[in-house]
Write a structure and sequence with these properties.
Blueprint (H helix, E strand, L loop, with lengths): L26 H9 L6 H8 L1 H5 L18 H46 L6 H7 L6 H6 L3 H11 L20 H14 L3 H8 L3 H19 L8 H6 L3 H6 L3 E11 L6 H7 E2 L4 E10 L5 E4 L3 E2 L4 H7 L2 H10 L8 E3 L7 H6 L3 E3 L12 H24 L3 H4 L10 H10 L15
Parallel strand pairs: 1-6, 6-7
Antiparallel strand pairs: 1-3, 2-3, 3-4, 3-5
Length: 436
């Protein structure tokens, strides 16, 4: 009978079989390498606190399963994802805070630089010009056309009792300028036709603030100048009349002439044809000016289109009406004379007022001037030069001597009137020899 052979019993050992090394990183290794932080879960904390298990390499640790890969629960993966999201959010918040602090520090640096620039003498103004005028004679007059004493007189007239102008747009940087610096800004633009960007850089203000200051001061000066009468009494005119003029035309009180300033050509064809001047061969604006025998301004009209004639502008400007009012108030007398050029054929209108018109004699093409007519023409031309010199003085303000842009049409009358009246604050160019 066949009996099966028993197999020998396997020797039992107390040593535990070592599993092959895991091909997958353990949970603690994931946190150590990728996040460099500890797990938020209690299970992970307990595993990390176990030094025996933590110090053993990952592939030599004992595992509870016979599978090749170590198993991680979904809750642990969810905790890892939540922790990563939280850390990313914290990192973003820290980066935003750093950017905010950098912006604040840069703003503080800019403010410090502005304060330093404001406190230094680099800021353009009256005080800077007066300080540099010690080395550069006539610097203040160069920028404004006025001496500093006349400038102070003008400022006192415009702002009596230290009043302050109110600007339509209350800007913060305008408050950093004094009233005399604002007036200086306006005069610099009138005198040299500086652009608003140039003035904004010089005075360290905004571009719109520079335009607001200029417009406000022009309107204010125009309003103040229109309130005063610049035509003196005839006795004062005769008393200050030059000797040569008094000898030749003792009864002539005023000299009149017209002048034109060039403008940009507007887009509207109707306005372009009205502005076109045959005399200048360009689009111009025309004005009537009157001065006394010493060359001081007596009257300035508003600007008209360049196509207007001298006769028509004498009527439309209100000059003849002004002469009538001056006669009624005793500023002129019957028989006083007005000197003009040949183009002012207004003998009838002047005669109706009881005045005389002194113009050069007309000569026909078939006849020749007599000796007396030649002498009269020479005398009139000799003394009419005063009105030409006054016009030249007005046009030293480059804002009216340069081509007027169409964007200034809104305030061109105010600018023209202000530039003319400012010549009264300048020195008189007709002086007698030996007089102080």
């Amino acid at each position: 009978m066949y009996t099966p052979r028993r197999l020998p019993k396997r020797r039992q050992t107390s040593e535990r079989t070592e599993l092959p090394p895991s091909k997958r990183k353990c949970l603690a290794s994931i946190f150590h390498n990728e996040m460099n932080t500890t797990l938020p879960t209690d299970v992970a904390k307990e595993e990390l606190q176990n030094e025996d298990n933590f110090n053993v390499p990952c592939h030599k640790r004992s595992v509870g399963t016979q599978t090749e890969h170590q198993w991680i629960s979904p809750l642990e993966m969810l905790a890892v994802s939540a922790e990563i999201a939280r850390l990313k959010q914290t990192l973003q918040e820290k980066e935003d805070a750093i950017k905010k602090l950098n912006n604040q520090s840069s703003n503080k640096k800019d403010k410090k630089l502005e304060k330093c620039a404001t406190s230094n003498d680099s800021k353009f103004g009256v005080s800077v010009i007066l300080k540099r005028q010690k080395k550069l004679t006539g610097l203040f007059k160069y920028y404004t056309g006025l001496s500093y004493i006349k400038f102070v007189s003008l400022l006192t007239f415009l702002l009596p009792n230290k009043t302050v102008l109110n600007y339509k747009k209350k800007r913060h940087d305008i408050k950093s300028l004094t009233s005399r610096d604002c007036l200086l800004l306006c005069l610099c633009r009138l005198r040299h036709n500086f652009g608003l960007r140039d003035l904004a850089v010089r005075f360290q203000i905004g571009l719109q603030s520079a335009g607001d200051i200029f417009n406000t001061w022009i309107d204010h000066m125009y309003w103040k100048f229109c309130q005063i009468s610049i035509w003196p009494h005839r006795d004062s005119i005769i008393e200050n009349m030059p000797k040569d003029f008094l000898k030749d035309f003792s009864s002539t009180i005023a000299i009149i002439d017209c002048t034109e300033i060039k403008t940009e050509s507007p887009n509207a064809l109707a306005l372009q044809s009205q502005l076109y001047s045959d005399y200048k061969s360009s689009t111009t604006l025309k004005s009537l000016i009157a001065c006394d025998p010493s060359g001081s301004l007596l009257f300035v009209s508003e600007l008209f289109t360049g196509c207007i004639s001298d006769v028509q502008i004498s009527t439309d400007s209100g000059f003849l009406i002004l002469l009538k009012q001056l006669i009624n108030h005793g500023y002129l007398k019957i028989g006083d004379g007005i000197m003009a050029d040949k183009g002012f054929t207004i003998q009838r209108e002047i005669a109706e007022l009881g005045l005389q018109l002194n113009i050069p004699p007309f000569v026909s093409s078939t006849s020749q001037m007599s000796t007396l007519e030649t002498q009269v023409t020479e005398k009139i031309a000799k003394h009419r030069i005063h009105i030409e010199r006054l016009i030249a003085k007005v046009k030293t303000f480059k804002i009216v001597s340069d081509v007027i842009p169409t964007k200034l049409f809104e305030r061109v009358n105010s600018i023209w009137t202000v530039c003319n009246v400012l010549t009264l604050f300048q020195d008189v160019f007709v002086k007698e020899k030996g007089l102080k």
